[in-house]
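wait is this the right file?? whatever heres the structure
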């Protein structure tokens, strides 16, 4: 697979709100929780994360979403529920929006992330320590948008996901080498990035 994913169309049919989950219990504890085995049922939003989402909704300054689609991890499901409840929507699960799988680093300190990002910059295909390759993350994340671009038009779709997958997606959409995803401005918990028309 190419290290760069090019946009297959000249214009967007929909707008997308790329939303990183609010501050989570995993963030609070400084641990890597990237496996569905742990992330779907545990490590939801922290109290700080709940407050962040309440504030985002109270101070909403983005287009009003018409759909809310989210990773099935608890922290993203809870984030999506805040957004969906505020606008009278029913959130829907999309497993392709899951956290990047960090393999053997699961459950370890989040201080281990940078060692993987260094390898990402050298090779977007690497799977060191069974970590999911950047190229694979880009492909699954991009396929979510590609499918919505085929299925809908004129919608504002909130996609609730995780830091690494969203930064990789933004790098892919910009047509930049995928290994440069950490050169994107860091997406903070509960951040919202608008893309599309």
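ok assuming it is, sequence goes like this
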């Amino acid at each position: 697979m190419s290290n760069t994913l090019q946009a297959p169309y000249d214009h967007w049919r929909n707008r997308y709100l790329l939303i990183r989950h609010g501050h989570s219990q995993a963030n609070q504890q400084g641990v890597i929780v990237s496996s569905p085995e742990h992330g779907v049922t545990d490590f939801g939003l922290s109290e700080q994360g709940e407050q962040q989402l309440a504030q985002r909704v109270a101070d909403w300054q983005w287009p009003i979403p018409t759909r809310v689609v989210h990773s099935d991890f608890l922290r993203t499901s809870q984030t999506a529920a805040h957004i969906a409840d505020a606008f009278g929507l029913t959130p829907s699960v999309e497993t392709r929006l899951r956290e990047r799988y960090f393999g053997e680093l699961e459950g370890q300190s989040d201080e281990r992330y940078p060692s993987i990002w260094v390898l990402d910059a050298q090779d977007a295909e690497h799977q060191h320590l069974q970590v999911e390759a950047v190229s694979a993350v880009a492909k699954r994340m991009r396929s979510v948008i590609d499918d919505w671009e085929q299925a809908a038009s004129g919608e504002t779709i909130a996609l609730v996901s995780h830091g690494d997958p969203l930064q990789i997606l933004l790098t892919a959409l910009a047509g930049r080498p995928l290994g440069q995803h950490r050169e994107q401005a860091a997406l903070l918990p509960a951040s919202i990035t608008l893309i599309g028309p």
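Residues 1-8 have pLDDT under 50 and may be disordered. so i think its the right one actually
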